[in-house]
Amino acid sequence: MSLGTRQNTQGDGLPDGDGVIAVAERIREAIQTVIEGKPDVVRIALTVLLAEGHLLIEDIPGVGKTMLAKALGRAIDCSVQRVQFTPDLLPADITGVSVYHQDRREFEFNPGPVFANIVLGDEINRASPKTQSALLECMEEMQVSVDGETRPLERPFMVVATQNPADMEGTYPLPEAQRDRFMARIAVGYPTPQAELDMIDSHSAESPLDRLEPVASAADVRTMVDHVKTIHVAPGVRRYAVDLVTATRSSAALRLGASPRATIHLVRAARAYAALEGRHYVVPDDLQALAVPVLAHRLLPSPEARMERRAPEQVVSEIVARLPIPSPR
């Protein structure tokens, strides 16, 4: 049974905010049975899902990056494919390849793992830039072009990629064009001591992923995404989003500011964030909460900022603190 039949709908046939919150809460609770003590991380992951974006999870090994991506995929009854990125991985291993059948004298396309609702790219920065670029078209246009034929991808479509920090052994830095296609980047971080104690018990006998059952369907997610698109963004709030992004382009601490795509991603994510709060409108606080995860990974610090060890996250936080908050109208 879909979200639309479980919950009330508005006059236009779309679900109301209560229906979206109810399903999102079930997904959140399911993920948190696996990822303990990280509610903010789970919230950003859900925000990106409902905003039809892609998520980059960057952190050191062993803190639960892959576990978070798997939990998100298992909480939703949809197709999930995993790609383990390695230096010898080829683009065709991701997009698929046409195979010639001698008996039928024709080519048959064997779709790659990218033809799924949720694609987990594990350790994406261990593959070469050429292989990483195989995801560019599908992440931006929700389609794959192979052998001169373009094939659409099914909604919802979300790439959840994990990567180790760039200074770790055997990694390639993600190209700027690749990073710009990820709506948000998050870090899981170390668990609290209590959460780590709980993990000893919950992970000893079996993985909590084995007990995780789907709590929503792909149709539910599509309906929720349609609701998010109806969230109102006032002209003043739109201008504030543009001011935030424009400030990164004029900052002396940055040699590469955020792109116009970043502005669109910031507003789309803010709509999803507001929907999860039960609101039908975006407020400046939504943009402020999302500015660092949505903007920081797209920015390149200047040589002076590198010498001063000023990370892009710090620069974005300073911009948020400095810019005046506009009138919501």
Give structural notes.
By secondary structure, the protein is α/β, with parallel strands linked by helices. It has a 5-stranded parallel beta sheet with strand order 3-6-9-1-10. It has a two-stranded parallel ribbon with strand order 2-11. It contains 15 helices and 13 strands. The protein has a domain at 3-230: P-loop containing nucleotide triphosphate hydrolases (Rossmann fold, 3-Layer(aba) Sandwich). The chain is globular, with a radius of gyration of 20 Å. It has helices spanning 3-6, 17-32, 39-50, 65-75, 92-95, 129-132, 136-141, 176-180, 193-202, 218-228, 235-250, 260-276, 284-295, 303-307, 312-322, and strands at residues 55-58, 76-77, 80-84, 96-101, 106-111, 118-122, 143-146, 149-152, 158-163, 184-186, 216-217, 254-256, 300-301. Residues 1-14 have low confidence and may be disordered.
Give the CATH level 1 class of the domain at 3-230: Alpha Beta
The CATH topology of the domain at 3-230: Rossmann fold
Instruction: Count every beta strand, where a strand is a DSSP E run of 2 or more residues.
Output: 13
What is the helix fraction of residues, given as a range?
40-55%
Helix/sheet category = alpha/beta
Determine the strand fraction and express it as a percent band.
15-25%
Total of DSSP H or I helical runs spanning 4+ residues: 15
- Topology order in helix (H) and strand (E) letters: HHHEHEEHEEEHHEEEHEHEHHEHHEHH
Instruction: Write out the CATH superfamily name of the domain at 3-230.
Output: P-loop containing nucleotide triphosphate hydrolases
Spatial gap, N to C terminus: 39 Å
Q: Tell me the strand order in the biggest sheet.
A: 3-6-9-1-10
Low-confidence stretches: 1-14
